[in-house]
Amino acid sequence: MITLSADKKDKTFHEIDSALERVKSEKRLKGVEDRRVASEVFDKRTLEVLYKLSNTGYLSILDGVISTGKEANVFKGLDDHDDFVAVKIYRIATSDFKKMQYYIQGDPRFKVKMSNKRQVVHAWVNKEFRNLKRAYESGVRVPRPFVSRENVLIMEFIGDSEGNPAPTLKEAPPLHPRKMFDKIVYYMRLLYKMARLVHGDLSAFNILNFEEEPVIIDISQAVVLDHPIAEELLERDARNISRDFKRFGVSSTPQEILEKIMD
User: Which helix or strand (DSSP H or E) is residue 59 part of?
Assistant: First the structure.
């Protein structure tokens, strides 16, 4: 556990580094792999960013890994009101810059110097924050975004009051597949019609099953409708949802899904 809010004015970055070392030495991060990942995630610059974010009220304690990916890790945290938040931290060293460039280029919202890797990651995080905000304000059930800075994004924690994160649809198939399918297609339509976005990587891996309600996550790669690859990505999303829900017993072709989204 790393406490970021106590004695904020007097706490130094050296003390934060020391706190991280105590976490690792006490093995309070689960397992050897989590401790290795922690060393990669919490570089000096990221610790500085977390310290600055602690002054916003959105983060006072960082404790526990929710998920570990190739490019980013999601941690559970507490804000100044002791409410759970999700903290997504992108690792500069292991980020897929070519993939990020592929989705950022062609998006009129961003003008980024693609040769600067750190700037690309910062733009990617800002892109995820803005995509979440657009989706949330359009009625799509996504985690509500709170704040982003450089390679860190703080958003709504999706899980129970005890701090247990919601599983993905891949981990917890729906009890009522048709009902879940209809809600997801409805959210895909809202994302397209109201938020003017296409997710681009939608599947059972990127949808949480929170008490039989779908919550769409990992929206960083989502593109605006006038992006050159928007149509291609929408078709891919439809194929993925058709395939995944066929496994759950729901039969619907990609074309039928597209018609429901675009009608």
Answer: none
